[in-house]
Amino acid sequence: MYLYGYQMHVRFSASVLKKLNATHLNTNADADGDILMKIAPLSTATQAILVEASERMKLSARGYHRVLRVARTIADLAHSDSIERSHIIEALGYRRIHTNLTLAA
Length: 105
What we know:
Blueprint: E1 2-3, E2 6-7, H1 14-23, H2 33-39, H3 44-56, H4 61-77, H5 85-104
Antiparallel strand pairs: 1-2
């Protein structure tokens, strides 16, 4: 994986790596629909947070999935097998920052 020209090493949790390998995907960004739901399952409480936030932020289905992909990546970087509340909140924060920057431009 490369980030701004520098090689970045990321250790994925064993369960997420197995799920990605089973789907023949290289990154979370490649996952969509059913595959995304398999590699990024949410607890009931975490899903409720994401659903409420997506309603308040008026996210489309595409926006919801983008937040979920980013949250899965954040969880991977934290070596977490599951997506936690903090991962969803951080992903939503990036979405808000991106939206504000787009509106300011």
